[in-house]
Design brief:
Number of helices: 4
CATH topology: Transcription Regulator spoIIAA
CATH superfamily: STAS domain
Distance between the termini: 27 Å
Strand order of the largest sheet: 1-2-3-4-5
Helix content: 25-40%
């Protein structure tokens, strides 16, 4: 798993590349735990190259949801592959998290 950061004015885009499993979820948790991430109004998660997500990977996002909400930071997923999106849907996480088809839509929120 490779995580690339692309900061803009008040938005941080994290691009996930590879498989988000138990071992790589530690890397993601480290990124999302950084205090400076809360200086953004939005954190956009680009899932275009994310081809697998395990329960550990989902758990990382779930564990940070309240922290982001308390800091008024929007967490938005975009470019999600269908098989990854299905995992979010099956678990009902699509109702807890904002998932949109494109970066343009994610930026507009």
């Amino acid at each position: 798993m490779k995580i690339t950061q692309q900061p803009t004015d008040d938005t941080l885009i994290l691009s996930l590349d590879g498989e988000l499993d138990a071992s790589s979820s530690v890397l993601l948790d480290t990124e999302l735990s950084k205090s400076e991430i809360l200086n953004n109004k939005k954190v956009l998660i680009d899932c275009q190259r994310l081809n697998y997500i395990s329960s550990a990977g989902l758990g990382v996002f779930i564990s940070h949801l309240q922290r982001f909400q308390d800091a008024s930071v929007k967490l938005i997923f975009f470019n999600m592959q269908e098989k990854v999106h299905n995992v979010f849907e099956i678990l009902g996480l699509d109702s807890l998290m904002t998932i949109v088809p494109s970066q343009a839509e994610a930026t507009a929120i």
